[in-house]
Model the fold of this input.
Amino acid sequence: MTEGLLERLAHGPVLGDGGYLLELEKRGYVQAGPFTPEVSVTEPDALAELHREFLRAGAEVLQALTFYASEEKLATVGLAGRVDDINQAAVRVARSVAREGDALVAGNLSLTWAYD
Done:
């Protein structure tokens, strides 16, 4: 049984992953500029491979690629109405890879312009 975050923290630091959007942009899967995460539905295998690389590097917490997956942000690239599909796919991919090791999955809150 996988230990939860608090149990892991009781043993010391817990390593997370990072840099998904920029790394996927370098690999040609994310458009520079908007950096929206539709790759979770358009290229799930590429996203899974990056999760695996972080897992092999020692990450104990994998982030679901949900940053910038808000209605407002996705609408800027013609993906209004896809927020649920994209977020659910991102969580599915992260969970699938996390099960290959002993990792936890965390979500990610997007920026919002609701308060501008």
The chain has six helices and two strands. The chain has a mean pLDDT of 90. The CA atoms of residues 40 and 89 lie 6 Å apart.
